[in-house]
Amino acid sequence: MEPTTITRDAIVNVVIVDGTPFVRERLKALLHTHVPQVDVIGEAAEAQAAIRLIRDIRPDVVILDLQLAGGSGFNVLRAVKLSSYAPIVIVLTNLTTIEYHVACLEAGAEFFLDKSFGLDLLTDILGHLVRRLTSDSHEEDRP
User: Fold this and answer.
1) Which residues in the chain come in under a pLDDT of 70?
2) Cβ burial 14-38 (10 Å sphere, 16+ → b, else e)
3) d(CA 7, CA 76)
4) Helical (H) or strand (E) element with 26
């Protein structure tokens, strides 16, 4: 019997930017388990390193905390949204007042999630993006 090969129709490349190693590891495990079409291609713990990484590897999605060493997640958000290649940004933070929410959306974030209970929403959002990319790639294959 031939081994079964699983192919992915679409891969969403993700960078995780969070100052806490445990949170980054937990997010990677969560995404690997619940959204296997997502590939975490990089991670950063501080603002300037995150900006360089995102500009260099050009992910489809950035999962971004606002509390970072060496700067703010706002600095990262503004910098990547001003670049010629702007990824989708999902802010995932404990700073959840309406002021932070509005400021992030005005700066270009597509999504704003509370770390306390937004992880299910995170996997739903990424699952939707995978389905959208899969659908788009099938549209391109049609004559």
Assistant:
1) 1-10, 136-143
2) bbbbbbeeebbeebeebbeeebebb
3) 33
4) helix 21-34
pTM comes to: 0.88
CB atoms within 10 A of CB 51: 20
Residue given tokens 């603002």 in the structure block? 47
In sequence order, the 6+-apart residues with CB closer than 8 A to the CB of 74 are 66, 103, 104, 107
Identity (one letter) of the amino acid at 1?
M
Inter-residue contact 51 to 86 (CB < 8 Å): no
Token pair for 89: 């940004």
Which tokens in the block code for residue 99? Answer: 């002021």
